[in-house]
Every structure is written in structure tokens, then in C-alpha cells.
Design a protein that fits this description.
CATH topology of one domain: Serine Threonine Protein Phosphatase 5, Tetratricopeptide repeat
Structural class: alpha/beta
Helix content: 55-70%
Strand order of the largest sheet: 3-2-1-4-5-6-7
CATH class of one domain: Mainly Alpha
CATH superfamily of one domain: Tetratricopeptide repeat domain
Length: 857
């Protein structure tokens, strides 16, 4: 050194070693009073200030010391330590490297360099430096501890454990080593080992709040929630401001259903640490579970202001937005979350589901497949991929994905329901009776809320089972929205006195869809002097002629497809709709969450869904005397309103092609008797098909003309026919056509056969409109009685049968009695325009009377 160390400075150093920081500082001050730029005095005073917790002043003093001795390795190292404390990791790295250049070589310098490197994310370099430190200072526990920490962060868990064990070999009671071993085991899912390590750490340091907190995390993953809560409470007793323990206690309480206590924990955490993102995040999740979506959204957005790249906040906000129907924005949030954490399988899966719901099926499939690349054992992703593949028409691949979900999780009820429904679409009937039995058992045990109510309508189920399924589904899917009604946003009590009744129609099907074709004339014939009509369309705008016709016919036609459920409910409320009519129910595109918020004082289920919606937020179900006779009323959650004729409206302006193709053009024999059924393939069940094959055997050379659904159904039905003694070529399949060309096909058929238990609905009225008779079998469920109601209101009661034997006899009688069949066809032709079924003006008057009645009730 250029300036000799005076005796006073040596004394100061002795005081420092004796941990007398005040004495050391006083003596350094006396030296500097005589020699203000004495480098050793400045250096030692800086080290004293650093030991006293004042890193800023320490750094300034050691810099001054270096001006007098710029190559002093010890000064460089200690300035680096100050920069470490100040979190200036890059500067610290440079100083430690300079100290090495100046000849310093002790193990702790390499340890400090390793810490600086690790803090910058330079893990490989950090590991190399810390290994050098361990080689040079094998007897220093902290060297092995820091090497273990860096290896653990680098993903080398087993090597990290070896380092921590080296610490314990040197110092058996080292609490941090036991703690870190517990953390490694917990991260690896070795919960018993983690519990043992944390317990050993507590044996050494029983009052360490962090260890109690981490032991609580182990108990929580073991589902020992009471023990977890006790650990968190112990941590808080030791450190009342322990934010992590406070939040973790809240999470356990939330899992136990003690939501108000959980919220109190999160709010205490926020009071302690107003910028602690996890507390806002957890509170947002709790508010979501309460159905307080606006509050939850504000909380997630608060997290993102604090931590713009927070994966958890983006993911949680994306889930919330998807729950509210804000799908485009939810996709944005999921994608931002994946920018921060690209390997999160659950977020890829949620993103795929959102894409699927907006109709971007290719992106949906890609997202689900990415989730499965990351986690091949993710049963829910296999299920979600199956749902997407089903909508893409890739039914064979969908079946494979449902199968994988069930192989991974045999009790995956949604996959079971989806698999059964796709099997019906494929007409793949092997083992289907057993699968139906499983679905019915699921409903019976109260877990049917995971089965879509619409799918069970085409299965052999009872009215009681369909009600139980709908109730369970509604309770699961709509509970958060119904819960909001305990804090109603909509005041429906104010009297509404207007000259016209406001009726709103809510539907996914206001495009090329059966609902649109059935209801078009309703909107044209409504009495505008008495009714103000609102239509809310949330399905695709296909720019079709029928869409334009509906838009022109409605006084108010609004596309709400891009709105959230809450926004649409607010719109309906703001429009002061008196009666809101849901035309979709639980069919494709369903948005019952809108009605669950009760935006209108009277809400009705009609036309689009043949059954109960199983919840009290729907007041009425519009039916007719045949659809729901009095003895079946107990199986419906809604109150019945029976229209005097058929519950189904029809359009008398439907367009029919002028050109009638020849039978040969359609692949039909010129002179054979032609049975037809243009229902969807999922309605064709084995028992029905058995009846049809017996009928074909009883009417030689006859053929059965079916709608071509998919190539698998075609192959399976032809194979099934051959197995039942009917030549496969006697089944003829009609390709899909536009409505005018589809309707004219009925003129080539002799008699239509109905499916069971899901009978013909729109296809039944299509059949009769075109003059082709239909024979049906009526059961006890709504869907099994629709064709019967249609036939009765067309004056064809004799074509409605009550048991399978009568159904077959009636069909064979008509097919082998040309005179009787011709008489029925003549009657259909003569009465078509006057029968109640097709008297649309009469229907509209009856419907309007029903609206008047329920509004005044």
C-alpha cells in the first residue's frame, strides 16, 4: 500500500473484527480527519457502513478509496459486494472479475461472482464460478449452499440436493440447507420427503415463518387443508406481515368453501403490501367465484399494471372473459400469458376452447394439440380436441381423442357424453347400450351436470332423467350468473305502461338454420299495433337471404355476437323488453348465461329446444296439449303454456325448387316403393333401424332413402343392413342440398319413416308440406312427441302410433295398400293450406294471445 496503515487504523480494524461497528467508524473518522483521502481508511469505513446496512454510502466510500489504489483486489471485491446488495448485478460482476485479474483467488470471491451471474440469469456461468468456489473453499458451507441454489434454478435438482447435503455434512444444523432440500422435494412432488426436510428445519429454527409457510404448501398439496391452515397461521403468528402466508391461508380457506374468510386474508395481504400482485390475483379469483365479475376484472387489471408480464393475471383474466362470453378479448389475454410462459399446457387448452367457441376451428385444434405436446396425459385437452374435431367433421379422430381422455381418466363424464353422441353420429353401435347405461347412471348419481342436456334427448332416457340432467347442467354452468341476482343489476319492479308489448327473441339460429326458416313469417305477421319486436342474434352472420329476410321483418334486429353475456343482458334490460323468448335452449351456440341474469321480467323457452332447461330463471315453456300432457308436467321446471294447436310455427312462404329431379338422378329405382327419412344420423338408433329393416324385408324391392350425414355413418348403416338380411344397396343416400332442392326431394318418396326417441321436428313439417305422409311413434319425452303433434295438427292423427308394434304395422299397411296411401296423400294436399299446422296467421294470433296472457298474469 502507498500509505502506511497508522496504529489508529489497525485499532479500527480490530474493533470491526470484534463487531464494534461504532468504535470502528469513530477511529476511521479520526484517521480521515488527518488524511481525508486515505484509501485504507476510506475502504475500511466503507466496509463498516456495508456491515451496518448502508450499501449506498459504502459504495461511495470504497470508490473514493479505489481512486487512490485502483488495483486493490480487496477494494474491488468489497465494492462488488456493495453493488450486489444494491442489486446492480452487472456492475458487481465486472468488479469481481477485476478483482480476479488483480490476483485475488479465494473461494468466496468466486462464490460472489457466481451469485452476481446467477442474479442476471447467466446460470451456466454461475454454476462454473460456484464450482470453482467449492473447489477452493470446500469447507465453507455457504459456498455449497449457493451452488445448490443455482443448480436448483438451473433445473439440476439432484445435483442441488448433493450440494445441500454437503452443507449439512459441514454443519448438520444448517436450517437453510434443510429448508432448500424441502423446497427441491416439494417442487419435484416428493411431498413426504419435503415434509420431513421442513420439519428438520423447524427443529433447528422453530420460529422461522418461511419454513412454516412452506410446510403449509406441502400439506395443501397433500389435501391436508386443516394442517396447511395451521401452518400458515403459525407463520402469521410469528410474522403478522407475512404476505405469502396470508395469501396461502386465503387459498386454503377458499378451497374449503370459506370464501368470506379467504377474502379477508387477501385484503389483509393487500393492506400490508399494496403492490403485492399475488394478493390482488387471489382476490380476483375469489371474486370470480362469487360471480362479481366486474370486481374480478378490475383486480386482474391491477395485477397487470403492477406486473405487465404476469402469466397468472393474463391467464385468469382470459378465463374470466371467456366465462363472460368476451371471447375475442379472452384470446388476446391467453396469448399474452403464453408470451410470458409459453409452455403452460392449460393456457394453450383454454385458448383452443376460446378459438373453438368463435368458430376458428383450425386454430382451436392447433392450440389443443400444443397443450398435448406439452402434457400428453392432459385428459381435458384430449376431450377439448375431440369437441373441436367433432365440429370439423373429423368424427373418427374425435372418437380417438374421446377415447384417450377416457383412458387417462375413466370417470371423465364429459368425454363419455361426447363419445356417445359422436358414436350416434357415426351410427357406430357396438357397445352403445352399455354406454347409455353409464350416462343414465351418471345422471342418477347427480353428476349429470357434465353431460350436455341436448345430447341425452336422442338417447333412451326418461323425462325424469332429462329434467335431472338439465338441472345439474344449469346449476354447474349458470350458478355464477344466477348468484349475481342476489345483487340484481336490473330493477324489474317498475311498472311499464306502453301502448305496445315489447317482445324480444334471443337466438343463435338467425341465419341458414331451422330456427330462421321456421320463424321468418312470425316476424312478418306480428301485429305491430300491439307488439314491438326485438331480435337479438348471436350466431354467425352468413349474409344469407334468410338472414336478410329476418332483418327486414324485425322492427329492431341487433347482432350481439361480439358482446359479453353481461353486455347483452344490459342491452335487453335497456330496451325494456317485457317478454324475452329464448329460441336456442341448450342446443349449439347456447348462451343461457344471458337469461340467467334476468334482464326481462318474463322469460320463455320456446321452439328451438325440445325440453326443459331445468332452472327457475325461465318462467314458461310454450308447448301444446299433445307435447306435454298433464301427467308429464312434473318433469319440467317451467310453467306450461299450451298453445291451442301445434307448438311449432311454420313458414308458408318457404321456397321450393320448380325443378323436380327424376328418381334416376337421385339414385333411386324408378318403380320401387321409396321410404325416406332425412333426419340427422344421430337420431337413428339400433332399435329403430331394426324396425326399418323388418319393414324393408316386408316390402320386397323397396328402398330406404336417407340423408347422407358422413361417410362413416353411410358405411356403418349399409353394413348393419346386410347384417339384418337387407342388401346394402337398398339404402340410398341423398347428398346435402340447399333448402329449395332439399324440399323438392320429398315428391319422389312414397312414405316417410320417423326416428325414435328423437322424432322428426322441422323435417316432419317439411315432409307434410311437400305432401309426403309420415308415420311416427310417440313416447313420453318432449322430443319423442313433436312429430305426433305435427301430424295431429295436419289432420293425420292416424299416423301417430303409441308402441313399436303398431308403428311397424301402420307402415306396412300403407306401403302395401296403395289406395289407403293415395287417400292420405290426397287429404294432405287438399288440407295443407287450411290445417292448423300451416295456418301461420292463426298461429301468430294464438302466440300473441299467449304473450298477453302471461304478461297480465
Amino acid at each position: 500500500m502507498s500509505i502506511a496503515m497508522p496504529d489508529k487504523l489497525r485499532a479500527a480494524f480490530g474493533r470491526f473484527q470484534a463487531q464494534d461497528l461504532a468504535g470502528a467508524e469513530r477511529l476511521c473518522g479520526e484517521v480521515l480527519k488527518d488524511a481525508p483521502r486515505h484509501p485504507d481508511a476510506l475502504h475500511l469505513l466503507g466496509v463498516v457502513r456495508l456491515a451496518g446496512g448502508n450499501a449506498d454510502e459504502a459504495a461511495a466510500l470504497i470508490r473514493q478509496a479505489l481512486e487512490g489504489n485502483p488495483r486493490d483486489a480487496a477494494m474491488l471485491e468489497n465494492l462488488g459486494v456493495a453493488q450486489l446488495v444494491l442489486r446492480n448485478f452487472s456492475t458487481a460482476e465486472t468488479l469481481f472479475r477485476d478483482a480476479l485479474i488483480q490476483g485475488a483467488s479465494q473461494g468466496q470471491l468466486y462464490m460472489r461472482l457466481g451469485i452476481a451471474l446467477a442474479s442476471q440469469g447467466k446460470l451456466a456461468d454461475a454454476v462454473a464460478s460456484l464450482r470453482e468456489a467449492a473447489a477452493r473453499a470446500p469447507g465453507v458451507p455457504d459456498v455449497h449452499l449457493h451452488l445448490g441454489n443455482t443448480l436448483a434454478e438451473f433445473g439440476q435438482a439432484e445435483e442441488a440436493l448433493a450440494c445441500y447435503n454437503s452443507v449439512l455434512a459441514l454443519q448438520p444444523g444448517h436450517p437453510a440447507a434443510h429448508f432448500n432440500i424441502g423446497s427441491v422435494h416439494r417442487s419435484a412432488g416428493r411431498l413426504e420427503e419435503a415434509e420431513a426436510s421442513f420439519s428438520r428445519a423447524l427443529a433447528v429454527a422453530p420460529d422461522d415463518a418461511d419454513t412454516h409457510n412452506n410446510l403449509g404448501l406441502v400439506y395443501e398439496r397433500q389435501q391436508r387443508l386443516d394442517a396447511a391452515a395451521a401452518s400458515y397461521r403459525r407463520a402469521l403468528a410469528l410474522t403478522p406481515d407475512h404476505v405469502h402466508a396470508q395469501g396461502n391461508l386465503g387459498n386454503v380457506l377458499r378451497a374449503q368453501g370459506r370464501i368470506d374468510e379467504a377474502i379477508a386474508c387477501y385484503e389483509r395481504a393487500i393492506a400490508v403490501a399494496p403492490n403485492h400482485g399475488d394478493a390482488y390475483l387471489n382476490l380476483g379469483i375469489a371474486r370470480t367465484e362469487q360471480g362479481r365479475y366486474a370486481d374480478a376484472r378490475a383486480l386482474f387489471e391491477k395485477v397487470l399494471r403492477l406486473e405487465p408480464r404476469s402469466f397468472e393475471a393474463h391467464h385468469s383474466l382470459g378465463c374470466l372473459l371467456a366465462l363472460q362470453g368476451e371471447l375475442a378479448e379472452s384470446i388476446v389475454q391467453f396469448r399474452r400469458g403464453l408470451e410470458a410462459a409459453p409452455d403452460r399446457a392449460n393456457t394453450h387448452n383454454e385458448l383452443g376452447t376460446a378459438y373453438c367457441r368463435i368458430g376458428d376451428l383450425d386454430s382451436a385444434a392447433a392450440s389443443h394439440r400444443r397443450a398435448l405436446e406439452l402434457d400428453p396425459g392432459y385428459a381435458n385437452a384430449h376431450y377439448a380436441l375431440a369437441e373441436t374435431l367433432k365440429l370439423q367433421g373429423r368424427l373418427d379422430e374425435a372418437m380417438e381423442s374421446y377415447g384417450r381422455a377416457l383412458a387417462l381418466k375413466p370417470d371423465h363424464i364429459q368425454a363419455l357424453g361426447g363419445s356417445v353422441h359422436v358414436r350416434q353420429h357415426l351410427c357406430q353401435w357396438d357397445g352403445i347400450e352399455d354406454l347409455w347405461r353409464q350416462v343414465r347412471e351418471t345422471i342418477a348419481t347427480g353428476t349429470g351436470g357434465l353431460i350436455t342436456p341436448f345430447s341425452v334427448m336422442s338417447m333412451p332416457t326418461t323425462p325424469a332423467e332429462q329434467l335431472a340432467c338439465a338441472r345439474a347442467w344449469a346449476q354447474r354452468e349458470l350458478a355464477p350468473f344466477i348468484a349475481q341476482r342476489s345483487r340484481p343489476a336490473f330493477d324489474l319492479s317498475a311498472p311499464r305502461q306502453r301502448s305496445r308489448l315489447r317482445v324480444g327473441y334471443l337466438s343463435w339460429g338467425f341465419h341458414r338454420h331451422a330456427t330462421a326458416y321456421l320463424t321468418a313469417q312470425l316476424f312478418e305477421l306480428h301485429d305491430r299495433g300491439r307488439f314491438e319486436v326485438f331480435a337479438y342474434a348471436y350466431g354467425p352472420d352468413d349474409k344469407s337471404t334468410i338472414r336478410a329476410r329476418l332483418r327486414n321483418a324485425c322492427e329492431h334486429f341487433t347482432d350481439v355476437s361480439q358482446e359479453s353475456y353481461v353486455a347483452t343482458a344490459q342491452r335487453i334490460y335497456d330496451d325494456q323488453v317485457d317478454i324475452l323468448v329464448d329460441l336456442t335452449g341448450y342446443t349449439l351456440g347456447t348462451r343461457p348465461q344471458i337469461l340467467a341474469q334476468r334482464p326481462a321480467p318474463i322469460q320463455v323457452n320456446w321452439l328451438g329446444y325440445p325440453g326443459t332447461m331445468g332452472t327457475e330463471y325461465i318462467d314458461y315453456l310454450f308447448v301444446d296439449p299433445f307435447i306435454v300432457p298433464g301427467n308429464l308436467e312434473p318433469f319440467y321446471a317451467e310453467r306450461m303454456v299450451r298453445l291451442p294447436d301445434c307448438y311449432q310455427i311454420n313458414d308458408r312462404r318457404r321456397e321450393v325448387s320448380d325443378r323436380v329431379p327424376s328418381r334416376e338422378e337421385c339414385g333411386l329405382p324408378a318403380r320401387a316403393f321409396v321410404f325416406c327419412c332425412f333426419n340427422q344420423a344421430y337420431k337413428i338408433l339400433p332399435e329403430t333401424f331394426d324396425r326399418w329393416m323388418r319393414i324393408l324385408r316386408g316390402v320386397p324391392e323397396s328402398v330406404l332413402w336417407l340423408a347422407e350425414a358422413n361417410r362413416w355413418a353411410t358405411e356403418n348403416l349399409r353394413r348393419a343392413a346386410a347384417e339384418r338380411g337387407v342388401a346394402a344397396e337398398r339404402l340410398v343416400f341423398a347428398a346435402r342440398k340447399d333448402l329449395p332442392e332439399y324440399l323438392v326431394q320429398y315428391r319422389l318418396a312414397d312414405l316417410a319413416l320417423d326416428t325414435f326417441p328423437y322424432t322428426s321436428h322441422t323435417t316432419a313439417s317439411d315432409t307434410l308440406w311437400m305432401g309426403c305422409p309420415l308415420v311416427t311413434l310417440a313416447g313420453e319425452t318432449f322430443a319423442s312427441r313433436v312429430a305426433g303433434s305435427i301430424l295431429i295438427n295436419a289432420g293425420m292423427r292416424e299416423l301417430v302410433t303409441d308402441n313399436p308394434g303398431d308403428y311397424e304395422r301402420k307402415v306396412l299397411e300403407l306401403a302395401t295398400s296403395p289406395g289407403k296411401l293415395q287417400d292420405i296423400r290426397r287429404r294432405l294436399q287438399e288440407t295443407r293450406d287450411s290445417c292448423p299446422l300451416f295456418d301461420t296467421p292463426r298461429f301468430v294470433r294464438n302466440l300473441e294471445s299467449a304473450y298477453d296472457g302471461i304478461f297480465r298474469a
